[in-house]
Amino acid sequence: MNDIPQPMNEGALPLFFSTVRQGLALAPTEVRRLFHGRGRTFTGLEQITCDWIGQHLVVQLFRPVSEPFMAALSQGLQQVANEQQYSIRSISIQHRYEMGAPTQFLLGEQPDKVAVVEGGLKYWMNITSNQNSGLFLDMRLGREWVRANAEGKNVLNLFAYTCGFSVAAIDGGAKQVVNIDMARSSLSRGRDNHNLNQQDVSKVKFLAHDIFKSWGKIKRMGPYDLIISDPPSFQKGSFALTKDYQKILRRLPDLLAEGGQVLACANSPSVTSSFVIDGMAEHAPNLHYVQRLDNPQEFADVDAEASLKVQLFGMK
What we know:
This protein has 9 helices and 16 strands. It has helices at residues 13-26, 67-82, 140-148, 164-171, 184-196, 215-220, 241-249, 252-255, 273-283; strands spanning 32-36, 48-53, 56-61, 90-95, 103-107, 114-118, 121-125, 154-158, 176-180, 204-207, 224-229, 234-235, 239-240, 256-266, 287-292, 309-315.
């Protein structure tokens, strides 16, 4: 397979615009990925994405494009903006291939953060950030599953980031959620997310700890009916998926209540779904594989194993 990125084709842009319009029509007030060229399902448009974030249209380019491509892209986006039913507050193009991912605005301005809606729940997002936006849009169905399966449960949220799973769990009736993340700033945003939804934060714990040094404290707040593990692929000095995930898996049986479940996630194209399944079989053999959750349709990928993998395990 040829992995060399191919030049993008301005002749394919009508497909980009029609897909964006379809996405806007389906979720006019919800946060959503509208176009996912990175999934390689759109020939000639593999290095472009478009997100709808709090009425702001955010386009990302992952490699340089020709002047005709940029001209056609800009003209088409302006035309979408003129279709008033979408209530677009701003349109921006982020050049992710350049140092610092500079942003050009075709319309309006973007605030540092904006409150978005997903499934009726609200979250803060940083739409001008090229990495830490505050909410991973491809995890939408994972949050939906947690919300639907959290009733009465004690939930452990490892690598909690800004606590999107926690917000979903509390809305779904969780008894308690324990959020663990090294980044105090992310947990602070997580608390803000709970407050944004007017949730009872007395049911939520925010622990800015190194997971690998905190197992004793984590265990004392258990046992847990549901454990969510959604680690970064790589975090310098603290976590590498292929090297460190096994250390997480072997701790799970001691933390789980009888009949407990684990939602184990991996979002690296360098590992397949068997990475976690085989790791669980080796390091936590009393947990059995149940199913892989679907990814949102808008994140379709020609290679499902290269995309987000959210897998459910249960106690035998």
